[in-house]
Specification:
The termini are far apart. By secondary structure, the protein is α+β, with helices and mostly antiparallel strands. The protein has helices at residues 3-10, 24-35, 54-63, 69-72, 84-92, 109-132, 147-153, 196-210, 222-231, 234-251; strands spanning 46-51, 75-82, 136-140, 160-169.
């Protein structure tokens, strides 16, 4: 296995940080790597917010599902799907003078999906770059929750969406290896919907991986556990509500 593959294989989420700071040179190297990521049409449909204010980090630790380690992370970046900067540039460029096109100034869901892809690809480049420097990371998807609060906290204009937040820091404790499930993950040519026999294998293997000592009272298998632990929670209710809020705001017609 070459060093790059070893690096990717060894990476796991870091939620406990050593007191060692991340240097300006290391930050610049990570940001440069993020911006070297592939991007749709070379438009770089994202922006990065560096959270340097401790009070803001403290607030995000609460609004992002009450995760205190966020406030202790030496470096926090928010990756924002961003079409606003292009809409502003279009206006500045007087695009209404362009002939032979159907004019529009309202980004649609396709623009949103491309911007989210750009932002997340850049974020993962940052994760790999940080890992190569011995710096751990943890994705915080909860930045999508509490949409109205986060939009105000970060002063996000209409055609933006905070698709992911990353906490960085040198690991403060030894990180255990992360188990990953690979069976039935890759399909050939077309999507293959799993049969009941295959789902039996999946349930057994995931159960052994994630809950080797049992699932707890009233839960018989891994499907029931994740249904109760994730899918039906208040957390996911607000996640779905907030994401719909972000999408509605993005696609709203200009007044």
């Amino acid at each position: 296995m070459n060093p790059t593959l070893e690096l990717i294989n060894a990476r796991s989420s870091t939620r406990v940080y050593a007191p060692a700071p991340i240097s300006d040179a290391e930050k610049q190297a990570i940001l440069h790597s993020a911006m070297r990521a592939p991007t749709a049409g070379n438009m770089m449909l994202y922006s990065i917010i560096e959270v340097s204010d401790q009070a803001l980090k403290d607030r995000l630790a609460v609004t992002c599902d009450d995760q205190p380690f966020v406030s202790k992370a030496p470096w926090v970046l928010i990756f924002v799907a961003d079409m606003q900067k292009w809409i502003d540039l279009f206006r500045y460029s007087k695009v209404e003078q362009v002939e032979g096109v159907e004019h529009r100034m309202i980004p649609g869901p396709g623009d949103l999906m491309l911007a989210c892809s750009d932002a997340l690809i850049a974020a993962q480049n940052a994760v790999v770059a940080a890992e190569s420097l011995g710096i751990g990371s943890c994705y915080i998807g909860d930045i999508l929750e509490q949409a109205e609060i986060h939009a105000e906290l970060l002063d996000l204009p209409p055609y933006t969406l905070p698709i992911g937040m990353l906490c960085f820091g040198y690991p403060g404790v030894e990180r255990p290896p992360t188990a990953h499930y690979e069976n039935h993950m890759v399909h050939e040519n077309t999507y293959h919907r799993l049969t009941d026999d295959e789902l039996t294998e999946v349930s057994r293997d995931l159960g052994q991986m994630h809950a080797p000592h049992g699932f707890g009272p009233g839960v018989a298998n891994i499907g029931q556990r994740e249904y109760k632990r994730k899918f039906t929670t208040d957390y996911m209710k607000d996640m779905n509500r907030s994401v719909q809020w972000w999408i509605d705001r993005w696609c709203a017609a200009e007044e």
